Amino acid sequence: MIRFENVGLRYGMGPEILRDISFQIPHGSFQFLTGPSGAGKTTLLRLLFLSLKPTRGLINIFGKDRARISPRELPLIRRRIGVVFQDFRLLDHMTTYENVALPLRVRGREESSYRNDVVELLRWVGLGERMYVLPPVLSGGEKQRAAIARALIEQPEILLADEPTGNVDPPLARRLLRLFIELNRLGTAVVIATHDLGLMDQVEARRMVLDAGRITIDDD
Description:
By secondary structure, the chain is α/β, with parallel strands linked by helices.
């Protein structure tokens, strides 16, 4: 699904932040991206989401060379990738339902064609009774689940989650992890960036360890 070969990234004339990054993300796989704070996990996720271009190396995504993807093609490819950001990025003037439905609305779909899907997904993430409230009323964990639902509404082939349990208590973190595991069982590849060792110990998954700009793979 995604292949990195000797990828490097630097900003301007500064030193390389990422160096010789090589790995593959197969269809339907589950992996953690971990490493110390400042190691470049968020930057690597941005490369995966195609919001950054590498300075050097090859990124192949869904069979396409990143360097050959035109600006016109980019939105179509990104629709196949769901992203959960650390800061949620919910719009405060829209209800939970409206936030989750926004990607479909932007695509021009009629509400009648997606309403049932949005309602069902909100119930699946435990927000069935909170779909018509505004984000400022939601707890941190509820905002996190709303952000996850929004990332899933277009049924992505891969989900990228940046520290999705960083602002919630351990019981809720376990609940969110179960959501990701269930999503993976349904066929979506999952990449979770986290420094939470306790969370990673709860599931057998590949660990991609990023440190000092380089990556190592732990398949044990």
